[in-house]
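In the laboratory, one determines a bound structure by crystallizing the protein with its ligand and collecting diffraction data. In a computational setting the workflow is compressed into a single prediction: the sequence and the ligand go in, and a structural description comes out. We illustrate the idea with magnesium ion.
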Amino acid sequence: RPRVLSGIQPTSGSFHLGNYLGAVRQWSALQETHDAFYMVVDLHAITIPKDPQELRDNTRLAAAQLLASGLDPDRCTVFVQSHVPEHTQLSWIMECLTGFGEASRMTQFKDKSSKQGADRTSVGLFTYPVLQIADILLYQANQVPVGEDQRQHVELTRDLALRFNGRYGATFTVPEPYILKETAKIYDLQDPAIKMSKSASTPKGIINLLDEPKVSAKKIKSAVTDTDTVIRFDEDKKPGISNLLTIYSTLTGTGIAELEQKYDGKGYGALKTELSEIVGEWVAPFRARTQEYLADPAALDAVLAKGAEKARAVASETLALAYDRVGFLPAA
Ligand code: ATP
Ligand code: MG
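The predicted complex, in structure-token form:
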């Protein structure tokens, strides 16, 4: 079975629709066909300051949402990144192989750091793509299912895998990004030029999966569209409407052309009202399942402990190989 690996940050409480449609939905599909590793990336989350208790709570909450999304711990490995120390250990080796210039070209770093100013930007935010390289290579992943915003980081991972293999001999699998075109980028409802984001979207721009259906309905109804009235998929001229159509289409499995026909001659209001209902119906059982998993933290922690054990078995083997290739003297 080919292997996949991916992760999600416990940055804020709820996953949003971009996380789900862009990534997590593919994760549950891939567990059927692949040897799948999915993690809550708490090490990545502290690149921006986090309250310790909130981080702990959000890590469990993220795990509960992964299970509520359909990840089955009997069919895939679900774990917490900090439970597997090999990630930070391999990361150091990768930092020493990554050019300062190439790391500086990561657009996500430029975006996130420009919002905070240089003095408040941590070195960890700068090196986070390198930790991500270690995350992926430790598991010898063939594919990395992510949203479009992560493509550049997976490309960097490929470059570094090739560089390490070239310098030290074949060691790492060179991974491919796995990005579905239709849902690669879900946009912010208030600003359809930027992606929906846990840390950057305004509350009105983001559809949280744990929002009350009333709340998400209100957000969808006030989504920014355009002054035209025709419901048509056109990402350049009608980014807001196209985004709503993408969400509608993927949640219901209806083709875009079919939706354009269905809403021919109808107004934006009708589309928004019906989409609100669809989202409401989708999130209600998701919220209920998440609450069930959260209600039993001991069981949740046991799932994560078992996941960490399975993950470490793979990660420690890869790390030992990498240490040997680099020339570290084995501890006697
Ligand atoms: P942050 O703003 O803190 O970086 P995020 O919203 O980007 O949070 P992550 O935890 O960084 O969420 O990403 C988890 C996964 O969701 C990644 O694979 C990422 O590519 C994907 N993803 C995030 N936002 C979107 C989006 N708007 N559309 C599609 N995929 C997305
Ligand atoms: Mg992100």
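The chain is about 55% helix and 5% strand. Keep in mind that any predicted model is a hypothesis to be tested, not a measurement.
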